[in-house]
Specification:
Elements (H helix, E strand, L loop, with lengths): L26 H15 L11 H8 L3 H13 L3 E3 L5 E3 L10 E2 L13 H15 L2 H4 L9 H15 L7 E4 L2 H12 L5 E4 L6 H8 L3 E4 L2 E2 L2 E2 L1 H11 L3 E4 L13 H13 L3 E5 L13 H4 L4 E6 L11 E4 L3 H11 L8 H13 L1 H24 L8 E5 L6 H10 L2 E2 L1 E2 L12 E5 L6 H16 L11
Parallel strand pairs: 3-14, 5-6, 5-9, 9-10, 10-11
Antiparallel strand pairs: 1-2, 4-12, 7-8, 11-12, 13-16, 15-16
Helix pairs in contact: 1-3, 2-3, 6-13, 7-8, 7-12, 9-10, 14-16
């Protein structure tokens, strides 16, 4: 359902005629979604009277119970409000205590056509029917049970093909997995190699664990094999970190030919590779992961935080073999015993039931729409994934632009947040998933566009 499908709100109940479609979610949820989107798009106006439940049921050709259930859920969410004998009305937006829009955190957008609240309630109810509460609230096996590892292998099959569950470890988030990998494959004082622009969690983990991060030069296809060889020989490194698909922050995807060159050089230099791959499922025609091309050289990391929800705190690691998995879990036990049983069980149930795949499709559809919106608003090429990398005009410095945007109530991440050493790229990362509504994202993008259109000198001093 799109705005183009909605009828002018001033035609009374006619605006509600397109509230339902033939397929998709249960009809009461479709009704709630219609109200939610109608308010966001301006099709339903706050203060406008809502049709009576009986008249709406007749208009839509559904039973009264369906409409009543939808209205109850819409009232619970604050979308409509009852005013006694006067009837039911579209509610005014709830007052916001903060005007800040945080586009600096890379999280997946809310999935299209999916009622996450209802999924959580139903999922937890089914979970309690299938499991005893005491089993969900006690200690579990570190690295996941045999069933969990099979489910992880099932989730990764569209990406990696068939994976032996004995190589899979279930981890409490990607950052914990990354720290455990560093402990597994390096000693204190050793060097970890990465690209110059890198996910900020890596240098933080490297520094806190007493290792050093050194960078390897890149070109348009990603890390250069010759530069990798030179850096490996110079620093005696044994571990390489790569995020080769829709790289964070640059969104660059390394071509297959370059992947094979890097794997060949890594083998000659005796380098083990961490492949951090949270965005592969968002990339159209993505090359095969490094772990598919050389599984014995690569530890493959995939988190649900970027594809489903950060709240699940579940990540999957595929190790080269069962022995390296044991070493990894020994390292992880030094700071994290297990993934949280309740949310981990919910994640496994969603994967087994097919719900996770439905959420993923909804997230991908919403991410595609938000990428299109960002491209139109900012005049940039349409991309993929849940963030964009915007090269800033020469009259702006990325840090100054981020500061000016913060004054406007918008948080973005300047290139300096990702740079290891001197950084020549003048850019900002704009994350597209943090706002629940497209309208809020659109407004923030327009404000950024207005800032970009003006010389920074206009924002050099703010007087309040």
């Amino acid at each position: 359902m799109t705005q183009n499908n909605l009828i002018d709100p001033h035609n009374g109940t006619a605006a509600w005629a397109s509230a339902l479609d033939a397929g998709g979610a249960p009809r009461y949820r479709q009704l709630v979604e219609f109200i939610k989107r109608g308010v966001a798009n301006g099709v339903l106006v706050p203060g406008e009277r809502v049709p009576t439940q009986r008249s709406l049921a007749a208009l839509l050709g559904v039973d009264l119970t369906t409409v009543t259930r939808g209205f109850n859920e819409a009232r619970r969410r604050g979308l409509i409000e009852a005013r006694g004998p006067l009837g039911t009305f579209v509610a005014a937006p709830r007052a916001r205590l903060s005007q800040r829009v945080d586009l600096s955190k890379n999280i997946p957008p809310p999935p299209v056509g999916i009622d996450t609240d209802a999924l959580l309630r139903e999922g937890l109810s089914r979970l309690l029917l299938r499991s005893h509460a005491d089993l969900l609230m006690t200690y579990h096996i570190g690295g996941g049970s045999v069933a969990d590892c099979k489910t992880g292998a099932q989730w990764l099959k569209p990406v990696l093909g068939r994976v032996d569950p004995a190589r899979v470890a279930v981890c409490p988030g990607a950052q914990a997995a990354l720290a455990a990998l560093i402990l597994t494959f390096t000693e204190p004082g050793e060097v970890v190699l990465s690209e110059p622009l890198v996910y900020p969690g890596l240098p933080h983990a490297v520094a806190e664990l007493g290792r050093r991060l050194e960078t390897v030069a890149t070109d348009a296809d990603g890390m250069r094999p010759d530069a990798l060889e030179a850096a490996s020989r110079l620093h005696g490194a044994r571990l390489l970190y790569l995020n080769p698909t829709l790289q964070n922050p640059t969104t660059m995807t390394m071509p297959e030919a370059r992947r094979r060159e890097i794997l060949g050089m890594a083998a000659r230099c005796n380098l083990h590779i961490i492949e951090d791959d949270p965005y592969w499922r968002f990339a159209p025609d993505a090359p095969p992961p490094l772990a598919c091309l050389a599984p014995a050289q690569v530890s493959y990391l995939s988190t649900l935080s970027k594809t489903l929800s950060p709240g699940l705190r579940t990540a999957f690691l595929v190790m080269p073999d069962a022995a390296s998995r044991v070493r990894l879990l020994t390292a992880m036990r030094s700071f994290s015993l297990m993934a949280a049983p309740l949310t981990n069980a919910l994640a496994m149930q969603w994967i087994d039931d097919g719900v996770a795949a439905q959420i993923l499709e909804g997230v991908r559809a919403e991410a595609h729409e938000r990428q299109r919106m960002a491209a139109q608003t900012l005049g940039s090429p349409a991309g993929a994934g849940i963030h964009i990398w915007y090269i800033v005009p020469s009259y702006w410095d990325a840090r100054d632009l981020a500061a000016a945007a913060r004054i406007e109530g918008i948080m973005v991440a300047p290139s300096t947040a990702f740079a290891q050493g001197p950084e020549s790229t003048n850019a900002i990362r704009i994350s597209l998933g943090a706002t629940t509504e497209r309208a809020g994202l659109q407004a923030a993008l327009r404000q950024i566009s207005e800032l970009l259109a003006n010389d920074r000198s206009a924002h050099a001093q703010v007087i309040v």
